[in-house]
Design a protein that fits this description.
The protein has two domains: 8-71, no CATH class; 76-280, MetI-like (MetI-like fold). The protein contains twelve helices and two strands, in the order ααββαααααααααα. The chain has helices at residues 7-33, 37-59, 74-85, 90-120, 122-135, 144-150, 154-179, 183-191, 196-225, 227-231, 239-248, 252-280, and strands at residues 63-64, 66-67. A two-stranded antiparallel sheet has the order 1-2. Strand 1 (63-64) and strand 2 (66-67) form a beta hairpin.
Length: 292
Amino acid sequence: MSSPSSPRSTKPRMLDRWSFLLSQLFQSSDSSSRINPIRLLFRVLSLVLFFGIWQFLCAIKFQFFINFSFLPSPVEVLSATLKFFSNNPMVHIQASVLRVLLGYAIAVVLGISLGIVIGWFQKIEDLVFLPLEILRPIPAVAWIPLAILMFPDAESGMVYITFIGAFFPILISTIKGVEGTDLLLLRVGQCLGARQWQVFKDIVIPGAMPSIASGLVIGMGNSWFCLVTAEILAGRFGIGYLTWESYVTSNYPPIVMGMLLIGLMGSLSSYAVDRLTHVLMPWRVTKKGNAN
């Protein structure tokens, strides 16, 4: 007979855990996708109103504080979008997605790890938090000269700038989540004989997860926010590069197209991160109340 800790018994357990996570992911996505028809109608109507008002203001060349005379209309943006997708668009989309995902992945690892350590250990917070707090408000565009000097190639500099966009929201959210752990739960764990590692693993980390999840979603959006700044460096491909090149050549419809593409991909990736964090926190159920 094989012992319970043998490889044969641990492998099915790992498979069961992965199957459970996948089932929770699909169940949560299915439940969230069941939108009330009235809510769906309002969401579609909001898009119709947005593009309709935009088209109307461009058609009448509205000028009152905001000038719509030179702003591309939705019809012109649609024409630029069709032209873009007819000329090998995956070269630009793939380049941008890879830069954002790589910078975001590095930010997740470093932001969560460093945030947990700073939030849990007072001495480490005293040593490293102040320099990080000084660097945090610096905008991504200000990092371009240093990125050129610090990294051996432009690609590394672009990944670094997308990393900067995601790192600080994840770091701060993790620190606040760890520091906001309920003291009552900590004392209960200590009274029950839990060691420091058990308290940290079973109370602090689960308690900080909602705050960490918020930082992950915000960090993903910020990575896309910094994409144009990153691809100004020396990119030859990418949605941000295409947007900046269109601005330099005064070709305005592709500028708006690039902005909308970045917004669309950023919202989709943020939604994916949000759904994944819900899977990792099955105990956290949130539901908005309907207004009367």
